[in-house]
Design brief:
Chain lengths: 276, 269
């Protein structure tokens, strides 16, 4: 793959070209090429520390240490001006891993925040829009609650409601199922599918939850140690023989390197002989 | 590591600190008009008023009590020493000039540093840890305008006001002690105070309090924004904010006082 490549579906709305990211001498991402097409849900898989969240932060322009190009809705994140970047971000919704809701604002005010700050809509219109978004995510009864009063699943729903408040064309979500029980996680998956259908969005979702990925994805991509090792459909991934993908899918641990194993055994033997 | 390397490293760390403070200050200055009433955004001005309540109004009891205690101590110590030289008639000048020139700005700045530099660092740091600052960025909102600028303006307004209050409390405490110790009448004390107050001393105190306010809010915000490592990091940030802001306030006061002394500005009649 890129043993398996995704099918072309017109122009990509997110195009990542030869992206490399380093922090000091540590290379976090290496030569990433990835396209996300209009109307699809692309799920980015990978083990912890593989660079998934770094890639997502690059796409939304939160980190600037990079070589290569990222084009979102025609805006080159690497070279565009700050005002173009702001405009691009207004057409992009982002759901953070922990929700990133403002604790000092109620759920309703959290969702209303971008509308109040970035539009000149009348208060009554904003109220209606907020209600519609909260209704869509099933939180219309929790509008007056504050984030610390919400359960994990409700926080994710509120975060989705805020992310879609401005009716963005693209929704980017970091670990939507992280920290949720299976029922809440399944609920968030269904909500993501509903949001895509109802608002005709393109979604880039980062996760390491296989069940969730297979439920929502149109296409999958997998990162390992900062490199993109596969992009393809669910069927293509199921039959993929790449050892890292098989290890990930079969939930196999990393083998302990020989020299570390030898030194652990030697130290255990020394301790045992000393005790004897 | 050799001594030179250590010194060099410390110099680089401090130069980075000063650079970061300057960049942040420039960015906030650019955004400050947005939080002003009338010309700016109503929502930001409302946020500024809330911050004024938190930073200024809620600090009133602490600044007041600290200033009363300090004024009382200054009068007590001053009378003891001046009495040895038969010069206790100068005690009112000692209390008044001491408070207006030096103690009021310093006591206020230390009190606000302890209360608000840590609180600002904790609040901004928590916003960094919970990705709220990132959320503002990706929503297309400027975190400097949204979060920092109201705190700056609130601190710049309230600290000079608290300084005036501190001076009044300190001078009042001096009167209370002198009334009981020397049986001094309020009328006499009041006249002596008015005689001792010089406009340039008041101007210097207000100017100093503006600078101290800027230092406190700058350090608090910067330490918050630099937070690394979750809840433990919040603890480190708040401690660093208090220590650095108090150090910078005292150091700046030393520089200003030295300049005033060397230029002979304070002794101009």
């Amino acid at each position: 793959m890129k043993h398996v490549d995704g099918r072309a579906k017109g122009d990509p709305v997110i195009s990542i070209q030869n992206l490399s990211v380093s922090y000091g001498s540590k290379r976090v991402l290496e030569g990433i090429d990835l396209d996300v097409y209009r109307g699809e849900i692309l799920v980015l898989l990978g083990e912890g520390g593989s660079g998934k969240t770094t890639l997502l932060r690059q796409v939304v322009g939160l980190d600037k240490h990079r070589t290569g190009r990222i084009i979102v809705n025609g805006c080159d994140v690497s070279t565009c001006s700050e005002s173009d970047l702001q405009n691009m971000r207004r057409r992009l919704g982002v759901g953070f891993q922990g929700g990133a809701l403002f604790d000092s604002l109620s759920v309703e005010d959290n969702v209303a925040l971008p509308l109040r700050e970035l539009t000149r809509l009348a208060d009554s219109t904003i109220e209606l829009m907020v209600w519609l978004k909260l209704k869509a995510v099933g939180l219309s009864d929790a509008a007056g609650l504050y984030p610390p009063e919400l359960s994990g699943g409700m926080k994710k729903r509120a975060a989705i409601a805020r992310a879609i408040a401005m009716d963005p064309e693209i929704l980017v979500f970091d670990e939507p199922s992280a920290g949720l029980d299976p029922i809440a996680s399944a609920g968030v998956d269904e909500l993501i599918l509903f949001v895509k259908r109802a608002f005709d969005m393109t979604l880039l979702v980062v996760t390491h939850e296989l069940q969730s990925a297979f439920r929502i994805a149109d296409r999958l991509a997998m990162l390992s140690h900062g490199s993109l090792i596969a992009v393809g459909t669910k069927e293509e991934f199921t039959h993929n023989t790449h050892p890292r993908i098989r290890q990930f899918f079969d939930r196999q641990p990393d083998a302990v390197p020989r020299e570390i194993a030898d030194s652990l055994i030697a130290s255990w033997l020394r301790k045992a002989s000393h005790e004897l | 590591m050799t001594l030179q390397e250590r010194v060099g490293r410390e110099v680089i760390v401090w130069a980075e600190e000063v650079g970061a403070l300057t960049m942040q200050f420039t960015e906030v200055l650019r955004k400050l008009p947005r939080v002003l009433p009338i010309v700016g955004s109503v929502r930001r001005w409302r946020a500024t008023l809330e911050q004024m309540l938190v930073i200024g109004v809620r600090a009133l009891p602490l600044v007041g009590i600290l200033s009363l205690c300090t004024g009382f101590i200054l009068a007590l110590q001053g009378v003891m020493e001046l009495r040895r030289f038969g010069a206790q008639q100068f005690i009112v000048e000692v209390v008044t000039i001491g408070f207006i020139r030096e103690l009021a700005p310093l006591v206020t700045a230390v009190a606000v540093s302890g209360r608000s530099a840590s609180a600002i660092a904790a609040e901004v740091g928590s916003m960094v840890a919970t990705e709220e600052i990132d959320a503002l960025h990706v929503m297309g909102l400027n975190p400097v305008e949204f979060t920092l600028a109201p705190k700056y303006l609130a601190t710049l307004i309230t600290v000079p006001c608290l300084t005036v209050l501190s001076a009044l409390c300190g001078i009042l405490a001096g009167y209370v002690f002198l009334h009981f110790d020397l049986d001094m009448s309020f009328r006499f004390y009041f006249h002596a105070v008015v005689e001792s107050i010089l406009l340039r001393d008041v101007a210097l105190a207000i100017a100093k309090s503006f600078v101290f306010a800027a230092i406190i809010v700058q350090v608090g915000c910067l330490e918050g924004l630099r937070l690394r490592g979750g809840p433990e990091g919040v603890g480190r940030s708040t401690t660093a904010a208090v220590v650095k802001s108090i150090f910078l306030v005292v150091f700046t006061d030393l520089i200003v006082t030295a300049i005033v002394y060397l230029t002979g500005w304070s002794s101009l009649g």
